[in-house]
Every structure is written in structure tokens, then in C-alpha cells.
Design brief:
The complex is a heterodimer of chains A (319) and B (476).
Chain A (H helix, E strand, L loop, with lengths): L1 H13 L4 H9 L6 H11 L6 H13 L1 E4 L7 H12 L13 E4 L4 H8 L5 E5 L10 H13 L4 E5 L2 H5 L3 H15 L3 E5 L2 H4 L2 H13 L4 E3 L11 H18 L4 E3 L7 H14 L12 E3 L2 H14 L12
Parallel strand pairs in A: 1-2, 1-8, 2-3, 3-4, 4-5, 5-6, 6-7
Helix pairs in contact in A: 3-12, 4-13, 4-14, 5-6, 7-9, 11-12, 12-13
Chain B lengths: L18 E2 L1 E3 L2 E3 L6 E5 L6 E6 L3 H19 L4 H17 L1 H12 L3 H22 L17 E5 L5 H15 L2 E5 L6 H12 L7 E3 L4 H8 L6 E5 L2 H11 L5 E5 L5 E4 L5 H13 L11 E5 L3 H12 L20 H16 L3 E3 L15 E4 L6 H4 L6 E7 L2 H9 L6 E5 L3 H10 L4 E4 L18 E2 L6 H4 L5
Parallel strand pairs in B: 1-5, 6-7, 6-9, 7-8, 9-10, 11-12, 11-16, 12-15, 14-15, 16-17
Antiparallel strand pairs in B: 2-3, 4-5, 10-18, 13-14
Classes of the chains: A alpha/beta (319), B alpha/beta (476).
């Protein structure tokens, strides 16, 4: 196994050199049966997570939240408040962990950076002409550099779906490689925008393409198109990171984003991570939720578990 | 690590009586010439209830009650009125689904997620489906005025106790027959709860009779001269004996017997979903499934890859308390069945196949068997030929589609088969050549009341389910 993994590793690094090699490899991946994938995801959704397991899952989910605001109306005041919440999600309970990261537009990064310094909460920024990615490459790369310089240590880029759907895989690949290099030390999350890729076969190919090009994380969605993260899409991406590690030895993280609003949803994802890729990914370094309203539901359920009663929404901060 | 805390379904939702009589002519009665036996929980070996054992006279009483009900009430009743009762039964099954699911898991050992999400919903669906046929029989394609046969003797197995009851009783009643049903001796309790449901639905007395007992009771029932139809689901061995005893009589016979299904994985299969299908094919209901995909045929050029994925997936299976909502594999139904699974598995090892199970802790009490695969199996091995009826998979390889078909068909059985490939044309080519009653493509163990089910060769004859399922209960 080790011998084949080593030889596979050298093989894969060559793939990005030619359009043909890339296409042959991506189209040679095993297909995804839509009915079967959706059935498996639904099955995992029926697991019953109670008591101690639920408490453990809620705290883990809080640590995995990328607390996000991506609005034209975002202001320094708004993002500072959000960052403060990220550090202390439940002011009434110091045992509540902080979230994984705060995620904002590049222009908001400096204000968030002031609040997060020294707290252990990461600072993510969406760059590369988010959400459409429809800008010249130089502008996208400048966007990335600006965000990193302003203090972002994680960059959420969007892939060039136009090139991907037109079959120009090498162009997508090269853009990711260039973005990764513009990131410097910052971690790169690659948004596939699975709602626009439409098929699970495309999701699997785009996942491998992003990993081959050096992405540290693969992320489902921008949250700006009607179809965002779903359980089956995340299942296909988890299978991809599992198989990629088996082939290359490198572990890549997964971030479903958009539409995950309740504790129940979040726990379904954690069960799926647990039973698809295992404990190695049950850590904020390897799995994140891109979400905003999810956090308050997690806090509400957390309080319910410790006190035995539900509190109204006014007992949790709205930021 | 993310450990799931116990999530047991409450067993207090179902009220189990200390003892049960026979259900004859609308009432629970004591046996006149029979004794009694105990039904146990296979997950704990605890006694659940004492159940009457019907003797020859009891069977005779039941058949006579069914005859009277057929002559006086059910036979003359218009189809639309029979439908009314069947719909009522279907609705009560849905209303009492939680109760039925918990009782099924207690008595049979199957995980609650299966009795709750598969067995009981399908039971309700079967009654709804056949209720719809009751007043439309002249449109079923069996002539202008198809007539019922009379009294049906029905003997069912322990693997899907309530579901097999539904497969038997729903079409029989819809077609206008009355029934005497014998559930398996290890799993009689849901049939007795169903008898209570018949009372609750005001079903006329004698239309459904339930006689509990073992092989002798079953023999007395199928050999009774007063029955017009015999329907049996169970082992090929018993099926043969029944066919012999029925031969030369006017009784109509349908048999649904054993299987040794091939699940064929081609090299272009969607591997992750195929692995799910393999797991579902053999580990669903502890492998106590006549149509289980117990022979895995993998194209040799992807065999290592598929087996590696399969083993990784098997390590995720949760074996244990059937009432825990997170349990994937429950208890083996009986000590006798466990002994048979062990005997055949030991034969597999002795004949040189390589045995593998994921690490898994089995409870101390009760009957348990870890999910197991054998690799390096050839057509000559006993485990490739005999029905194991347990969570044991035999893995074989093939080189070409023609070889896959040849191996798949090289069995005395012919109940079901599975095909995994991304090519639609290959699905059709293969399905055309497989001698099996049901062929699943890129899925496995899918059941629906509208779809006929049944076998070729030693897997039996006759079809259950769908329009075809009516034929066995009509004079056509």
C-alpha cells in the first residue's frame, strides 16, 4: 500500500501539466450514482444523537463554525460586533468554546483583525472576485494579496465555473495554483459552487481538481446561489478527500457552506464526517461550517442541554 | 472520537401479554389438542410470551371457521366492501406502527431502524395497495369475472414476520379468499398483534385465522383437505415436501423459497454506491433475506479496490441492541440459525477461503454473528452454493461480462440478482441473461407492493406483489 501510494503521489503531481492528462484523470474517476448517494446521505441523517454525544457534537460544531457576513451593507461596526461574538459566543457561559473563524469581505478584514488578534479565532476572507469569479485573473490575485496583507490567514476563493463547465480544466487548475501562491502562508479554501456544477460527477471532478492544484480545503458554496450545501454533495466531497489522502498522503479539509441553520442539520454533517472519513476530520482544522444563523441555534441547544429548559431567542446575542 | 450515546426506542409502547391463544373465528381460544411454546427475544434470550401450539383438531377448527366465513360472509361480499375493511386495517397498521415495529424487533432481533423504516411501512403499503384491487378484479387481466379460490393455507417464515403476513393476507383477502395463517414458531407475536388489529377493524369472524406452532402445525395445515390454496415462504427443503404433499390434489400452490443471489460489480461501477449496495445486499436484516446478495461477483481488475472500500465500510457497521436506533445489525433470530451460520462459515474456512470480519464486540447474551466476508471463494466452495441466511458474504471474481453471467446463473436457485455499472446498455444485456426473478440495477433489496416478486428454479414459483400477486388467489 505504501509503495503504491508513493508512486501515485509522483504520478498525480504531473497531471496539471497538460489539459489532456488532467481531463483523462478526472473523467476516469469512478462515477457517482445519484440515487445511491442521496440514499446514503439520507440514511446517515437518521442517526439518533442524544445526551453526552449531543453535548460533544454541539461543542465541536461551535468550534467548527466560520461565522460569516458577506453583505454589501457590512460596516466596520457590524463586523467588529460579529468578531466579538466569535470570540465569546455565549457571554453567559465562559465554558462555551470560540468559533473556528470569522469570514468577511477583504475590505472588512482590518476591522476584524483588530478584534481577533491573539484569540485563536482564524480570520477568513472571500477573495477572487467573490462570488462570481468573473474578473481577470490579475484582479482576482490582487484581491487575494490585499486580503492577506490586511490580516486574513484563510482565503476562500471561488473556482472559475465558466472554464470548468466549458471543459477547460487546466485553466481552472492554473488559477487555483496561482491563487495558492498569492496566499503565501494563508490557508486556501476552494469554493466549488456545487449548486452551479449541478451533477455529483462534476462535484467529484472539481473536488479532485482543487486538491490536485493545492487547495487546503474544498468548500461547497458561496451562499449566493439558490442551491447551497446539501448532505449528498458533502458526502461526495468527503469521499473525495478520503480517496485523495489514500492516494497522495495529503489531508484536505471540507467546508459545507450555506443553508445549514439548525443544530440538527449540523449533527447530521458530523455523523457523516464520522462515518465517511473518520475521527481525523472531526476537528476545526479539517472541517468547518460556513454559516451565520447556525451559531445561535447551537447555543440555544447547548443551554437547553445544560439547564434542561429552552431560553427565548432574546437570551442570545444577535450580531 | 465521536461516540454515539445509547438511543434506545422505548419498549413500553407495546403491551405483551404473558400468554396467547389461537386466533380462530374472530376470537382468541385455547388449543384443544395442542400444547404451548415460548417465544424469546433473540437479543437477550429472555422469554417474551407463552404461545399456544395448535394441534390437528385446532387446525381443523380454523379451516372450518375460514370455510364458513368464505361461504357466508367474505365470498358473497362485494369487492368495494372488502376494500373498506382492508383500508381500515392498513390505517390501523399505520396508526400502531411504532408498537408493531418495537414488537417485531423484540421478537425477531432485527434493528429498530429496519422494522420502523422498512418492514412496517411496507406492511401498510401492501394493505393499501391490495385494498385498491378488491373492487377492480375484473380489470386485472384475468378474465371478466375472476373468482376467489376459497380457503387459503399460508405458512410464513421468521425473517420478515409481519411483512410476509402482509404479502400473504392482503392479496388473498382482496381477491375474496379467507385465510388460515401459520407464523413461524420463533416469531409469532406480531401476527397475534395483527389478529387484534383484525378485531379492532371489525373484520368479520373467520376471515383471518392465525394458528401458531411449529412444523407439525404447518404440515397439518397444508395437508388439510379443506384448503383450496397453499402459499408458502421458507426453505427449499420444506417447499419440496409441501409440493409433494399437495401434488395430485386440487390445491393451488405458490412457493417462495431460498436463494443465493449474485451481486455483480463491473469495473465501471460507481464504487462508493456499489459498496453501499453490497452492504445493504448482505447485511440488511442480518442477512436473513431469501433474496440477499450473498455471492459478490467483482470484475477482477477492480476487486482489490472494491474490497478495500467494502472492508472500510464494514468497520462502520454497528452491531448490538436491536432497539437502539443507531444499530445497523441486530441479533441472529435463533440458536438453531446461529449454529447453521457457524457451521457453513467454518466450512468456508476449512475449504480454504479467507475469512475477514471487522473488529466488533458482540453482546454476551443472545445470538450474535459478526458481519463476515470470505475472499478467494470459488464456485466449488459450499459457501458459494448453499444458502447461509446470515451476515456472511462470499466474494468471487470474473473477467468478462459473459463469465459474470455464467457464474451468476450457475446455482440451483434463481430468486434475485444485482448489477452495478454506469452503462445502461450493459444493465439491459446482463439482465436479459440472468435467470432470476428480480434483477436490481445499481440498487439492491428494493421492495414495493406494486412490483411482483418471486423465483426461478429451486427458488419457487408464483409471484407475490403487484397485479401478478392476485393470480395465485384467483380461479384463473
Amino acid at each position: 500500500m505504501t509503495a503504491t501510494a508513493t508512486s501515485a503521489r509522483s504520478d498525480l503531481s504531473e497531471l496539471g501539466r497538460s489539459e489532456t492528462a488532467l481531463r483523462t484523470f478526472l473523467h476516469g474517476l469512478p462515477g457517482v450514482d445519484q440515487v445511491g448517494a442521496e440514499q446514503r446521505a439520507a440514511q446517515l441523517g437518521t442517526r439518533s444523537i442524544k445526551t453526552t454525544a449531543k453535548a460533544q457534537a454541539i461543542d465541536l460544531a461551535i468550534r467548527m463554525v466560520d461565522l460569516t457576513t458577506l453583505e454589501g451593507a457590512d460596516t466596520p461596526g457590524k463586523v467588529r460586533a460579529l468578531a466579538a461574538k466569535a470570540v465569546r459566543p455565549d457571554p453567559a457561559d465562559p465554558s462555551c468554546p470560540h468559533v473556528g473563524a470569522v469570514c468577511v469581505y477583504p475590505s472588512m478584514v482590518p476591522y476584524v483583525a483588530e478584534v481577533l488578534r491573539g484569540t485563536g479565532v482564524h480570520l477568513a476572507s472571500v477573495a477572487t472576485a467573490f462570488p462570481s469569479g468573473q474578473a481577470p485573473l490579475e484582479i482576482k490575485l490582487a484581491d487575494v494579496r490585499a486580503a492577506v496583507e490586511a490580516g486574513a490567514d484563510e482565503i476562500d476563493m471561488v473556482i472559475n465555473r465558466s472554464a470548468f463547465l466549458a471543459g477547460r480544466y487546466k485553466e481552472v487548475y492554473d488559477e487555483i495554483v496561482a491563487t495558492k501562491s498569492a496566499c503565501g502562508d494563508a490557508h486556501l479554501k476552494v469554493i466549488l459552487e456545487t449548486g452551479e456544477l449541478a451533477t455529483y460527477d462534476n462535484v467529484r471532478r472539481a473536488s479532485w481538481l482543487a486538491m490536485l492544484a493545492g487547495g487546503d480545503f474544498i468548500k461547497t458554496s458561496t451562499g449566493k446561489v439558490p442551491v447551497a450545501a446539501t448532505l449528498p454533495v458533502s458526502l461526495v466531497m468527503l469521499e473525495a478527500v478520503r480517496d485523495f489522502r489514500a492516494a497522495t498522503g495529503r489531508q484536505v479539509g471540507v467546508k459545507p457552506a450555506g443553508g445549514i441553520k439548525t443544530t440538527k442539520d449540523a449533527i447530521k454533517y458530523l455523523v457523516m464526517v464520522n462515518e465517511t472519513v473518520g475521527a481525523d476530520w472531526l476537528d476545526p482544522d479539517w472541517f468547518r461550517f460556513g454559516a451565520s444563523s447556525l451559531l445561535n441555534d447551537l447555543l440555544m441547544q447547548r443551554t437547553k442541554l445544560t439547564t434542561g429548559v429552552y431560553s427565548g431567542p432574546d437570551y442570545f446575542t444577535l450580531d | 472520537m465521536f461516540e454515539y450515546a445509547p438511543a434506545p426506542e422505548s419498549r413500553s409502547v407495546v403491551d405483551i401479554k404473558p400468554s396467547y391463544g389461537l386466533f380462530i373465528d374472530g376470537k382468541f381460544v385455547d388449543p384443544t389438542d395442542g400444547g404451548s411454546f415460548k417465544s424469546i427475544n433473540p437479543a437477550s434470550e429472555e422469554v417474551l410470551a407463552e404461545v399456544a401450539e395448535a394441534g390437528g383438531q385446532d387446525v381443523d377448527r380454523a379451516v372450518r371457521a375460514a370455510r364458513t366465513a368464505y361461504d357466508k360472509v367474505w365470498g358473497p361480499m362485494p369487492g368495494r366492501d372488502r376494500a373498506k375493511y382492508l383500508y381500515r386495517i392498513a390505517r390501523i397498521i399505520q396508526e400502531r406502527s411504532r408498537e408493531l415495529a418495537v414488537l417485531e424487533s423484540l421478537d425477531n432481533g432485527k434493528p429498530i431502524k429496519e422494522s420502523r423504516d422498512v418492514d412496517v411501512p411496507l406492511v401498510g403499503a401492501h394493505f393499501f395497495y391490495y385494498a385498491g384491487w378488491a373492487d377492480k378484479l375484473e380489470h386485472a387481466g384475468f378474465g371478466a369475472n375472476p373468482r376467489p379460490l376459497g380457503v387459503a393455507a399460508q405458512v410464513i417464515p421468521w425473517n420478515f414476520p409481519l411483512l410476509m403476513l402482509a404479502w400473504k393476507i392482503a392479496p388473498a383477502l382482496a381477491a375474496g379468499n379467507t385465510v388460515v395463517l401459520k407464523p413461524a414458531e420463533t416469531t409469532p407475536l406480531t401476527a397475534l398483534l395483527f389478529a387484534e388489529i383484525c378485531q379492532q377493524a371489525d373484520l368479520p369472524a373467520g376471515v383471518v385465522n392465525i394458528v401458531t406452532g411449529a412444523g407439525d402445525t404447518g404440515r397439518a395445515l397444508v395437508e388439510h383437505p379443506g384448503v383450496d390454496k397453499v402459499a408458502f415462504t421458507g426453505s427449499t427443503e420444506v417447499g419440496r415436501a409441501i409440493a409433494r404433499s399437495v401434488a395430485g390434489t386440487r390445491k393451488k400452490l405458490t412457493l417462495e423459497l431460498g436463494g443465493k443471489a449474485a451481486n455483480i460489480v463491473f469495473d465501471d461501477a460507481p464504487i462508493d454506491q456499489a459498496v453501499e449496495g453490497i452492504v445493504n445486499g448482505i447485511f440488511f436484516n442480518q442477512g436473513h433475506v431469501c433474496c440477499a446478495g450473498s455471492r459478490l461477483l467483482i470484475q477482477e481488475n477492480v476487486a482489490d479496490r472494491v474490497l478495500e472500500s467494502l472492508k472500510r465500510r464494514m468497520a462502520q457497521l454497528r452491531v448490538g441492541d436491536p432497539l437502539d436506533k443507531n444499530t445497523d445489525i441486530g441479533a441472529i433470530n435463533s440458536a438453531a440459525q446461529l449454529a447453521r451460520i457457524k457451521e457453513l462459515s467454518d466450512a468456508g474456512s476449512a475449504e480454504g477461503a479467507e475469512r475477514w470480519s471487522p473488529p466488533c464486540e458482540l453482546p454476551d447474551r443472545g445470538f450474535w454473528f459478526a458481519p463476515t466476508i470470505f475472499t478467494g471463494v470459488t464456485q466449488a466452495h459450499r459457501i458459494a452454493r448453499e444458502e447461509i441466511f446470515g451476515p456472511v458474504l462470499s466474494v468471487l471474481t470474473f473477467r468478462t461480462p459473459a463469465e459474470a453471467v455464467e457464474k451468476a446463473n450457475n446455482t440451483p436457485y434463481g430468486l434475485s440478482a444485482g448489477i452495478w455499472t454506469d452503462k445502461g446498455s450493459r444493465i439491459l444485456w446482463t439482465a436479459d441473461r440472468l435467470r432470476a426473478g428480480v434483477v436490481w440495477a445499481n440498487t439492491f433489496n428494493k421492495f414495493d407492493p406494486t412490483s411482483p416478486f418471486g423465483g426461478y428454479k429451486e427458488s419457487g414459483y408464483g409471484r407475490e406483489g403487484g397485479r401478478h400477486g392476485l393470480e395465485g388467489y384467483l380461479n384463473v
